[in-house]
Write a structure and sequence with these properties.
Helix content is about 40%, strand content about 15%. By secondary structure, the chain is an alpha/beta fold. The protein is globular and about 55 Å long. The protein starts with 6 loop residues before the first strand and ends in a 9-residue tail after the last helix.
């Protein structure tokens, strides 16, 4: 008989996936047998807040986790449905079975607790330094940013010309994007 594996779920936009995310995932991976990473807002791309497609984020995360030696994970794109009463069921329909949920979002916590899941607080690592918003701002302004993300992430961003995409989509919107 097989031992009961513990699977954990974490959902994020990962715009882009950075070293803070990597540390969170390393920590969670030590506490479970299988990790499910939900790539949230999968339908969004090509904006300052969400510049990368779900496929690009999948590639970034997959490269970063493999490079770090993590193998027992699933990456699942998740489209927003904007109906909180059925959102947990929507997530359940997309991913393998899981027991634990990691989040710092109060609404996500409440929804999964109401559905009977064990919800744990995600560890935070240098949020002042590791911020998707700050990394996007650095890319736009030409400041150094590569040291804030795993190597596979910067490789992916350059491969898909995500750096140029960010600069292009924010041209003429300097008031909206504080650099």
């Amino acid at each position: 008989m097989r031992k009961q594996e513990v699977s954990a779920l974490i959902i994020g936009r990962f715009q882009p996936f950075h070293n803070g995310h990597m540390e969170v995932i390393r920590t969670i991976a030590k506490q479970c047998d299988r990790l499910i990473v939900g790539i949230g807002s999968a339908q969004l791309s090509h904006t300052f807040e969400n510049p990368f497609t779900a496929g690009e984020r999948h590639l970034m995360i997959s490269r970063a986790l493999h490079d770090d030696g993590l193998e027992n994970f699933f990456l699942v794109p998740m489209v927003d449905i904007n109906r909180y009463a059925v959102w947990v069921a929507h997530v359940q329909s997309l991913v393998p079975p899981f027991q634990d949920v990691y989040t710092n979002n109060p609404l996500t916590r409440r929804l999964f607790e109401e559905a009977g899941y064990k919800v744990r607080t995600s560890p935070l690592f240098n949020r002042d330094v590791y911020s998707g918003t700050e990394i996007r701002r650095r890319i736009i302004s030409g400041k150094e940013w590569e040291h804030l993300v795993p190597p596979g992430v910067s490789e992916t961003i350059y491969e898909v010309h995500g750096d140029q995409r960010l600069r292009d989509i924010t041209k003429g919107h300097a008031n909206e994007v504080t650099i």
